[in-house]
Specification:
It comes from Methanoculleus bourgensis. This is Transposase. The protein has 187 residues and is of the alpha+beta class. It has one domain. 34% of the residues lie in helices and 22% in strands. The chain is built from six helices and five strands, in the order E-E-H-E-H-E-E-H-H-H-H. The strands form two sheets. Strands 3-4-5 form a three-stranded mixed beta sheet, with no helix packed on it. A two-stranded antiparallel sheet has the order 1-2. The radius of gyration is 18 Å and the shape is globular. The protein starts with 9 loop residues before the first strand and ends in a 5-residue tail after the last helix.
């Protein structure tokens, strides 16, 4: 059955490195279309880059990012690099940082923040653990779990009394669970 609602599902995550704000998550089959949709979602939550206000994008070695970024965004606006992990069997034998587009500083080509968040997701949401029996039976439940995780990471948990949302100027205080559960949005 080749249906978007069944089988494997990849979740793309985007973290803003300077504040550690969990910008976005997007899931689907591991295709260039899903990758492009994930990048679009990420860029809707950022100030769009310009040649005078470039942004640095760092990803893993997935070739889909190269194609999607080249097709979606102008080259003079993005400095882009990849972290390529070299493995022999299940053993990591080397890591290289590759400049793909623009001129990112080598030390800026890092996926450690997003890898840390992905590890945190696997630890806290059993449906994302490796080799787990706690898989999601419905995509909507998977998305809801990630939405709660994203909110808590951005608004409730922080280091030194400051959350990522506070660093970005989105809120002026650490949110409590009661505030989160009783907050009403005016539409």
């Amino acid at each position: 059955m080749n249906d978007r609602n069944h089988g494997d599902r990849w979740v793309y995550t985007a973290i803003r490195s300077n504040s550690r704000l969990f910008l976005a998550h997007f899931g689907g089959k591991r295709t260039e279309t899903t990758c492009a949709l994930a990048l679009d979602l990420m860029f809707t939550r950022l100030q769009l880059p310009t040649p005078s206000a470039r942004i640095i994008v760092a990803t893993d070695g997935n070739a889909q990012y190269v194609e999607a970024l080249a097709r979606l965004y102008c080259e003079p606006c993005i400095d882009y690099g990849q972290v390529i992990k070299h493995r022999e069997g299940n053993r990591l034998v080397g890591v290289s940082r590759v400049n793909i587009r623009g001129n990112p500083a080598v030390e800026a080509i890092s996926t450690s923040n997003v890898e840390g968040y992905n590890n945190k997701i696997r630890q806290r949401l059993s449906r994302f653990g490796r080799r787990t029996a706690a898989f999601s039976k419905r995509i909507v439940a998977c998305i809801a779990a990630l939405n709660v995780f994203q909110f808590v990471s951005n608004f409730v948990e922080g280091k030194g009394g400051e959350t990522p949302a506070m660093k970005e100027g989105i809120t002026d205080h650490v949110w409590t669970w009661q505030e989160f559960l009783t907050y009403h949005i005016q539409l």
